[in-house]
Design brief:
heterodimer, A: mainly alpha, 3 helical TM bundles of succinate and fumarate reductases, elongated, B: about 110 residues, mainly alpha
């Protein structure tokens, strides 16, 4: 792992530690009595704090996950070089796009 | 081949950290797509919730919640070792990480069933 990727992995991990703690608490609270769209969207629609936390969450995940996948690929397979890095950059872009879309989907009225 | 080193708690931690991360990375795009159904209105999201209201999915969700909690706990352990110069008793630290992750998963399971 290059020093830049190592640092990005660790800094995003610190951000994720807070985001995941919030997310786990929210999950455990939200599933009581079953999930309904009205309940979920009632919490998220128009909620600026929700959007801010989850945008940061998505950005951190889009950085963290591809670097982790790159490490796993390099440890467990012979895959190296530009094709691996390009693939993981595309995965990062996909996670970022889908994640921001998901956050907006439950934020927008 | 299982080597003696593969039974060390540090190896188990590294393996579980990778496997849980891999599972979460595969799940995430599906999770995002599922939430994206809200773009088609609350009815579409409710239809999705109804479709996944099965014991099998709940069990899978338990696994994912536990994987997320375990991954986070093992990650905090790595950060503590690397940046806080923490000297740990590896077996104890790794056991605590797994226990904490499983506990979060079980709390989820109790609430969801």
């Amino acid at each position: 792992m290059t020093p830049l990727l190592f640092l990005a992995q660790r800094i995003s991990a610190v951000v994720l530690a807070f985001a995941v703690a919030i997310h786990l608490a929210t999950i455990v609270y939200a599933v009581r009595g079953g999930l309904t769209a009205a309940e979920v969207l009632g919490r998220t629609r128009g909620n600026g704090w929700f959007l801010a936390v989850y945008v940061v969450f998505v950005i951190a995940v889009a950085i963290h996950a591809p670097i982790g996948l790159r490490n796993i690929a390099r440890e467990w397979t012979a895959w190296r070089g530009r094709s691996l890095d390009v693939t993981l950059a595309l995965i990062a872009a996909l996670l970022l796009a889908l994640g921001l879309r998901a956050a907006l989907a439950v934020y927008l009225p | 081949m299982i080597r003696a080193s593969h039974r060390q708690p540090g190896f188990v931690a590294a393996l579980l950290h990778r496997l849980s991360g891999l599972a979460l990375a595969i799940f995430l795009p599906l999770h995002f797509l599922a939430l994206g159904t809200a773009l088609n209105g609350a009815g579409a999201l409710d239809a999705f919730f109804t479709a996944i209201d099965t014991p099998l999915v709940k069990f899978a969700e338990f696994g994912l919640v536990a994987a997320l909690a375990v991954h986070m706990a093992l990650g905090l352990r790595v950060l503590a070792i690397e940046f806080l110069d923490v000297r740990e008793r590896t077996a104890v630290a790794v056991s605590l990480c797994l226990a904490a992750g499983l506990a979060v998963g079980l709390v989820f399971l109790i609430n969801v069933v």
